[in-house]
Amino acid sequence: MAASVTLTAGALALADVAGAPGVGDPYFPASGNGGYNALHYDVVLKYTPKTQTVAATVTMTARAGHPLRTFNLDFRGPRVTSVTVDGIRAAHTRDAGELVITPAVPLARGEEFTTVVSYTGTPTSIQHGTLGTYGWIKTREGAIVLAEPDGASTWLPVNDHPSDKATYDFTITVPKHLKALANGEPLAPSLEGNWATFRWRQPVAMASYLASVAIGKWEMTHGKVGDITVITAVDPKFKKSLTQVHRRTMRALRWGRTTFGPYPFRTSGAIVDDPRLDYALETQDRPIYGGFVPSEDFVVHELAHQWFGNSVTVRRWKDIWLNEGFATYAEWMYREHRSKKDSAAKTFRSYYRQPAKAPIFQTPPGAPGREQMFGFPVYVRGAMTLHVLRQRVGDAKFRTILKTWAAERQGGHGTTEQFVALSERVSGKKLDKLFQVWLYKKGKPKRGSW
Ligand SMILES: [Zn+2]
């Protein structure tokens, strides 16, 4: 079917009809794809732990931004067995991390279309020097997904860039002695022979790096904070800590709602799995902790991301401090709230006392570069930036800025420039120098220079 489409003379130039293989993010040029917007993914996946294989069918509903003769999905997963577009078999080829699809009938600008990709085999994780192990990760009993920044394509054919958020449905089938968790709200599970099927619905637009499944033998507990359902699950190895993790999550959630405004999703919780990854990820609704019982700080950090990162999402990876600086500053604020003697100002001073050659001052958090995007400066100097903002505008205005950022951009995106503009609007102060010095200038900011 590959040559079934012929363009008539006078048709659009090729550049106008091929979807670009990336969205133009300089940190990840191949991430995402041009030419369309994903609206919804329906993920149907069966996992056999014994052979570590998946058999999956993913349906993407999307809208074409311009006429498309071909378009791409990001996919580094196993063998593709079939692709259809609007119910008709489509030609497809694979080129590194790209799945290039040629529909039998070219797509018109503005057209909503449905792409169904079926695949089978063993997904693998990405091993990267500074970014670590991520993507689809095999565990002792099952598997887990932690996909930031570009690991969703290890298990999903997807428009893998945070600038294109979509809603999701998950239908995950596993051997009946296991359970499958995913983002969002649980629907009724079903049993058939030796297999159990678990369904989850994510009705709020989600960045692909936050999409996750967690397959294992979970010990679980449920609770409520207001109308938010809190579901906490731990690997049996961490059974003794289930209640503690659950309580920490509930407490941090209550504090987050008063500090940042209404929680942006309907469910929350925590997942603690067995592989010792030495990091956690703020997977939408329920963060995943990789092989350790999270401290209070850790829980607060990952839950703060539900507002900052998950609900208000970066449009380009360069702005990652909007996620990590904010979540780190949430830890400082929470400690201040819990303890009379542990103020954010004290934490700021302890970092600011570090010598000019200290690592936190070497990388500007507003432009860290791909290799340093999860480096210490993005977290700590990012949080310090928020602290100097708070000092400049005062406590009340600072809290208004955080709440307004979360409210005005709920479910959408934000950039650094937009955050600076909001801070100036709320405070009535000129703040460009403060942000320039703290976010973009190399070296330790000198007192009086902002
Ligand atoms: Zn974080």
List the helices and strands and how they pair.
Blueprint: H1 14-17, E1 36-48, E2 53-64, E3 71-74, E4 79-85, E5 88-89, E6 91-95, E7 98-102, E8 112-121, E9 125-128, E10 132-138, E11 143-146, E12 166-175, E13 179-182, E14 185-192, E15 195-206, E16 213-216, E17 219-225, E18 228-234, H2 242-260, E19 267-273, E20 280-281, E21 288-290, H3 296-307, E22 313-314, H4 321-338, H5 344-352, H6 376-393, H7 395-408, E23 413-414, H8 416-427, H9 432-440
Parallel strand pairs: 1-12, 18-19, 19-21, 22-23
Antiparallel strand pairs: 1-2, 2-8, 3-7, 4-5, 4-8, 6-7, 9-10, 10-11, 11-16, 12-15, 13-16, 14-15, 17-18, 20-21
Helix pairs in contact: 2-3, 3-4, 4-6, 5-6, 6-7, 6-9, 7-8
This protein binds zinc ion.
Residues 282, 301, 305, 324, 327 line the site of zinc ion (ZN).
Summary?
This protein is α+β, with helices and mostly antiparallel strands.
